[in-house]
Design a protein that fits this description.
Strand content: 25-35%
Order of helices and strands: HHHEHEHEEHEHHEE
Shape: globular
Helix content: 25-40%
Largest sheet: 7 strands, mixed
Number of helices: 8
Number of strands: 7
């Protein structure tokens, strides 16, 4: 529980500068590839889970989707409101990944970018993604592969040291998704420790259809 509390404090503290920090961790191409994997269409309704300051939300709005952005951090929600509060088709909501504040079958597609390694229960989050999707809806998860950089956990308050993609794909199948595909995204996440150690970790994707 302490890791989760520390993670929450970390994101509260960095919310105002998160857009700048994020650019040092991974490229904008991550979101474009995620949206392409989901085959998003203008007019669809999307959920951005663990939205942060709206990295994915921004791209979804630009492609003409309605977006519900969910995050547990009040500071992140404030940034989302500041950036997108006047935009048609946007709303944001506080919520936990194991109990999303959305009705069943509420969205056409949902996204979770760099969220899974912060949650207490990956299984619970993936079950929630299944619940909120309409039949035939698509989920795309992007995160980094299992690694051995301890400072990701101690300095950036990650809950998990990444994941083997086949294990995450299995969780999607167990949640009930009809088709599941996993593979390398062709992007990396990188960070530097306080002692100068640089960690570069491949990012993978899971695309699943309800």
């Amino acid at each position: 529980m302490e890791e989760i509390q520390s993670s929450a404090r970390y994101f509260e503290e960095v919310a105002a500068e998160w857009d700048t920090l994020r650019k040092g961790f991974f490229r904008d191409a991550v979101r474009e590839k995620a949206l392409d994997l989901a085959k998003v269409q203008a007019g669809e309704r999307a959920a951005d889970i663990g939205a942060g300051t709206g990295f994915l939300t921004e791209a979804l709005l630009k492609r003409g989707l309605e977006v519900v952005a969910v995050d547990r951090s009040p500071a992140m929600l404030a940034e989302l409101t500041r950036k997108f509060g006047g935009r048609s088709g946007f709303r944001c909501m506080p919520g936990e990944t194991d109990a999303l504040p959305l009705e069943a079958s509420a969205v056409d597609c949902c996204f979770a970018n760099m969220v899974l390694h912060h949650v207490e229960s990956p299984e619970a989050m993936i079950r929630e993604l299944f619940r909120i999707l309409k039949p035939g809806g698509r989920a795309v998860l992007t995160d980094f592969e299992r690694h051995g950089f301890d400072f990701f956990l101690s300095e950036y308050y990650d809950r998990w040291p990444g994941f083997p993609p086949p294990e995450v794909a299995s969780l999607f199948r167990e949640a009930g998704f009809a088709t599941v595909e996993a593979g390398p995204l062709g992007e990396v996440c990188q960070a530097e420790s306080s002692t100068g150690i640089r960690g570069i970790v491949p990012i993978f994707f899971v695309r699943a259809v309800r």
